Amino acid sequence: MTAPGGSDGPSIGAGVLPEAPTTSPAPPAAPAATGGTNPVRSIVVPGLLTVLFLALAVFCGRRGIVTDTWPAFLPGADSTAITRYVGPWLTAAALALLGAGLSVLALIRGLRARGSRA
């Protein structure tokens, strides 16, 4: 029996690793300057999306709450109103509100970026 690293065969890892490069890799490129961004893309588009999402939320919310009128259940009443909540429409309204909120955040970010350049 020989000691580890003896002469009874190749040792594990010997000569397997490649040589280290002699030149250092190029540094990462600097990000592009934000001074030339288009104000339409950073302010107008999020503003329009906010209005669109809010209108969609109102539309879906009105479809999600339905009031049905039935014949009177109690004596002396003309009719009975029953309110139903339609889950898919209310879920769509909630998602539209989420989209509006995210659009508002994008709008605020665009306004702050524009204000910091001035």
UniProtKB/TrEMBL annotation:
Membrane-traversing stretches: 43-65, 85-108
Keyword set includes Transmembrane: yes
Region described as Disordered: spans on this chain: 1-36
Keywords: Cell projection, Cilium, Flagellum, Membrane, Transmembrane, Transmembrane helix
Organism domain of life: Bacteria
UniProt source species: Nakamurella multipartita (strain ATCC 700099 / DSM 44233 / CIP 104796 / JCM 9543 / NBRC 105858 / Y-104)
Species classification: Bacteria, Bacillati, Actinomycetota, Actinomycetes, Nakamurellales
Protein's recorded name: Flagellar biosynthesis protein FliO
